[in-house]
Amino acid sequence: MIQESFPQEINHAKQVGIVGIPPLAVIQTLNRQGVKILDLDEPLIRANIENATPYLPRVYCAILRTAVINALELELDAVFIDVGPGKCDCALHTAQIMKDFLAIPVITTKNLDSSGYGFPLCEAKMDLVAKMQAITNGVKSAAPYAIQPPACRPTAGFWGVPPRDFSILSLFPDTTHIYGWTRCMENKTPADHELEAEYNPEIPTVFFAQSFCAKTASARYLAKKHPHGLYLDVDVHTTGSAKAKIQAFLELSGAGR
Predict the structure, then answer these.
(1) Nearest CA among 27, 90, 37, 30 for reference residue 216
(2) How far is residue 205's CA from residue 210's CA, in Å, rounded to a whole number?
(3) What is the Cβ-side half-sphere exposure of residue 174, based on CA atoms within 13 angstroms?
């Protein structure tokens, strides 16, 4: 449900940014009007993340700081930001700050969509970087995913949110299943906390969250419950130490590439 009605100028918008996953009703309207959607959660420009410091403290996650940098630099007609249970309280505060320093409409939404689209990509045999890119690109369209690959037998799991630095994903085998909020993302139900909490205890799983994200609590807790889980949080860039941890974990569990 949209908290604020579409401003009049949105009717002539050519390019808008989204933070989190706005409701399908919003995406459908933008698709219908032929508006180009940019996912501000992704690093779309080359810029120092410290450029966000005048607006957000460093203890905010790299995703929201990236959204601020993108909003500052890109030519946008509006920003739609989800501040409901599928995102976080920090997004609400970020929206209020964006409204103050941006000269374009910043429209807050609450995504409570509950009709699932499925998550075939999360369970497909596919390079994990390409798989994650396909899932994140899917938020820009209200249509079902064009790719509907068959499920594979998993040998490893990745639980969590899409990382800011996708290079971390290159360490996983193609037979990795995705769980957590990313699975909710493909299902187009970002506030489905039951689906988000699911994992497979049969396979070694990395439980991931961005540093300073509230989801680090769930990631760490579930990693402790899992028979063979690794908890990991990463801030802006994936360090060599973090990559070494994942590589060793997967190789020792027999799930290496």
Answers:
(1) 90
(2) 16
(3) 6
Q: Among 63, 87, 109, where does a domain finish?
A: 109
How far apart are alpha carbons 90 and 143 in whole angstroms?
29
Cβ pair 70, 98 in contact under 8 A: no
Distance CA(156)–CA(106), nearest Å, equals 39
Strands 36-39 and 106-109: unpaired
Q: Which residues of the chain register pLDDT less than 50?
A: 1-4
Locate 87 and state its tokens: 């995102």
Query: In this structure, are 169 and 82 located in the same domain?
Result: no
Look up the domain containing 68 and give its range.
2-109
pLDDT tens for 117-143 read 999 999 999 999 999 999 999 999 998
Q: What is the pLDDT of residue 45?
A: 94
Q: Let me know whether 184 and 230 are in one domain.
A: yes
The domain boundary, picked from 109, 143, 161, lies at 109
If asked whether residues 134 and 156 sit together in one domain, one would say yes
- Tell me, yes or no, whether 17 and 48 share the same domain: yes
Reported pTM? 0.93
